[in-house]
Structure formats: structure tokens, C-alpha cells
Amino acid sequence: MAAPGSFWRTLTAPLLRENPVTLQILGICSALAVTTSLATALTMAASLTVVLTLAAGLISLIRRHIPDTIRLILQIVIIASLVIVIDQILQAYFFEISRALSVFVGLITTNCLVLGRTETFARHNPPVPSMVDAFGNGLGYSLVLIFIGCVREVFGKGELMGRQVLPLAEQGGWFTPLSLMLLAPSGFFLLGGLVWALRTLMPEQAEAPDFAPPEHREAAE
Amino acid sequence: MTDLWSLFLRASFVENMPLSLFLGLCTFLALSRRTETALGLGVAMTAVMGVTVPLNQLLYVWFLAPGAWGWAGLPELDLSYLSLVAFIGVIAATVQLLEMVLDRFFPAVYAAFGVFLPLLTVQCAILAGSLFMQERRYGLAESAVYGLGSGAGFAVAVVVLSAVRTRLAYADLPDGLRGLGITFILAGLMSLGFASFALMAAQ
């Protein structure tokens, strides 16, 4: 068994340094689609973290019995079953939010983050570290979702969790909502900006330039 | 006929999968470095979506919808909660089948697709096509048109993005923005363009 220090590292590394969304390019679809308000972003983040942690644990438990050829289908079936459970719970207890999330809960099944972590980590490690790793990645994903959700809701509607935080101009305040924040393009711009900021803070994450001088180009390809 | 045509346009432009609904972004961003691969991905997407959405529609109507088992004396059976697993199974099987057919009859096309074909199983846009079909209760013809339209829309978007990125290879960007960052911002600008289709549709 690994030392407690490495547990802590497995848990915290995906938060900023190896963030699944900004560095590994995993799970972007849902990170953008459900972040028009903080409440939906939180629900999505929580659902994904639960599914990811449980799926990693389960797959890691049976990792020695999965034949290589059918492992993708097996993993997807396990994930899909967990997602169905979450979907039913949301529909039963949080009906309004489940309406707002529409098909995106179901799409956790094909969220590359879940399959990516089970495929790269849980398949080769014992259950406990796998679940810790999955939980850490879930938290890293949640951080990004919460950040984007906050920005879009505050600047798009002047609200946070449905409560007014910036006084609106039409009600005698000073704030005019930026309706662009609620549309699709702003999600791209915010995430692009976030990636830029993170990579400026941590230059080792920056990608190598695509461009190579012409004489080396043939060799590189 | 005009209804189907407008559904096709709606699926491909107004509700463009990657740019207005944020679906299939992982492959959209990862495979848009070169125009050839982007084109291959677009064609594969259109083919798979054109097949799986109508197939899943049949599956849903005949086996999963509430009351679908009425002919077997089980009118109260509601299996719609199983649709997620069923849909993903159909998609995985279709992708596998398509791979085998291409390998057998069109080896050149198969070689061109390479690794993208199996990857399509976990493409969110494909599963989303089937889930939207279920949510909006499309008929068989509508499902086929919707699947083809969404696939075509994805193809257009990914080819355009790859063309822009090819041009950008020579641009001198700030270090932190290179690669993923600038791609997001490009996608955002394209998404603004596609948002104007939504305004046109509203008028």
C-alpha cells in the first residue's frame, strides 16, 4: 500500500497542476453546456464526481477479470448503469434541476473524463488509490465548473444561486446584464481565458509550438 | 418534405452540435489539427449518426417506450429507463459493424479513418443525437434526417476549425495561449457566427 503522502498527492494533483479539463482536455462538453447557472453546474459536478468515483472503484475491483478485447463495452455498461441510478435519483428529488440539465446527465456516460480515468488509472491500480484519483479528478472538474458557472451567472443575470447579488439597472441599480454570458460563445471564451491564465501561471503546461522551420518540417511529420 | 428539409437545416446549423450545444467537443478539439483528419472524422460522424439515430428510434418505439410491450400482454411495462444502456449498445455495435464492412469492402476508406472509428463509440454528440430523438419524440423519417443533419453540421464545423488552425500554425501567439487556449477562443468566435443562424431561424 502506498504511503499517506502519495494519497494526498493523487488527490490534489488533478486540482490545478493536472486539471482534467484545462490540461488533459477531458470532459469539456459538459463543462461548457451546463454552466449557465451555478445550481446546475454544482449538480452536474456532484453527479459526475459520484459516478466517476464509484465507476473507478468498481472497475478497479474487477480489473483482473476483464478481458482486454471487450473492456471498453464492459466499462461503458458499468458507467451507464451508474448514470441511470443518478438520473433516476435526480428526477425523483431534484426534478427542476433535472429538467434544466436535460440530456446532459445521460451524457455523463460518454463523458471522456470518466472513461479516460477508468482506462488510464483504475485499470492498473487497486481500488483505494483508484477511487482517490477519481475523486481528485472529479474535484478538479468541479472547480472549473463552479468557476465558470459563477462567472456566467453573476455577469449574465446578476444573480448567484438564484439570489440577486448585483443590483440590476432596470430595478434602480447600476448593473446591466451581459446577455452574451448566457449564450454558447461566452463559455468558449471563458474557458479559453482560464486555460491561458493557468498556463501563464504554470508555464510548464504550455504546449510546444506547432510551427517548425521548414527544413525540419519533413522530419517532424 | 419542406418540414424534413427545415429539420435538416435546423439540426446542422441552428443546433450545431459542437458550437451551439457543446457536444462532441473532445474530438472536435483534439482532431482538428489537420484538415484531412477533420474531413474523415466529419464523414464518419455523419455516417454513424445517420444510422444510429433511426435504429435507436425503432428500438425505443418497439421495445422501450411505455406500453411498447402491449402485444405481449404487458401493457404496463415501462423500460424507458433502460434506454441509455440500449442506445450506447446500439452505437457501439454500429461502429463495430461499420468498421468491419469498411475493412472488407472499402479498405482504402478504412485505412483513412484509422483510429477514429472506434473512438466514435464514446462521442457525446452521437449519444446526444439519440437522447434528443427520445426527448423530442421524433418519428422514423425525422430521426434519419435529424441524425444526418447533425452529423453534417459537425462535419462543417470541424473542417472549418481545422482550416483556421492550419493557418494559425504560423502565428506568433503568447506561450500560454498556444494550442488549447487559442482553439477555445476560435471555437467561441465560430460559435458567435453560428448564433446568427439561430437569429435567422427565429425570424
UniProtKB/TrEMBL annotation, chain A:
Transmembrane segments: 45-62, 74-94, 100-117, 138-155, 175-198
GO biological process, one term: sodium ion transport
Any one Gene Ontology molecular-function term assigned to this protein's record: oxidoreductase activity, acting on NAD(P)H, quinone or similar compound as acceptor
The protein, known as: Na(+)-translocating NADH-quinone reductase subunit D
Keyword entries, A-Z: Cell inner membrane, Cell membrane, Ion transport, Membrane, NAD, Nitrogen fixation, Oxidoreductase, Sodium, Sodium transport, Translocase, Transmembrane, Transmembrane helix, Transport, Ubiquinone
Record's bilayer topology term: Multi-pass membrane protein
Organism this protein belongs to: Roseisalinus antarcticus
GO cellular component: endomembrane system; plasma membrane
InterPro entries noted in UniProt: NqrD, NqrDE/RnfAE
Protein EC: 1.6.5.-
Enzyme class: oxidoreductase
TrEMBL record, chain B:
Coiled coil spans: none
Swiss-Prot/TrEMBL keywords: Cell inner membrane, Cell membrane, Ion transport, Membrane, NAD, Nitrogen fixation, Oxidoreductase, Sodium, Sodium transport, Translocase, Transmembrane, Transmembrane helix, Transport, Ubiquinone
GO BP of this protein: respiratory electron transport chain; sodium ion transport
Pfam families, A to Z: Rnf-Nqr
GO molecular function: oxidoreductase activity, acting on NAD(P)H, quinone or similar compound as acceptor
Keyword Transferase: no
Superkingdom of the organism of origin: Bacteria
GO CC terms, sorted: endomembrane system; Gram-negative-bacterium-type cell wall; plasma membrane
EC number, UniProt record: 1.6.5.-
Topology of the protein relative to the lipid bilayer: Multi-pass membrane protein
Subcellular location: Endomembrane system
InterPro entries: NqrDE/RnfAE, NqrDE/RnfAE_oxidrdctase, NqrE
Keyword match Metal-binding: no
Transmembrane region(s): 12-31, 38-59, 79-98, 110-132, 144-164, 176-202
Name of the protein described by the UniProt record: Na(+)-translocating NADH-quinone reductase subunit E
Organism: Roseisalinus antarcticus
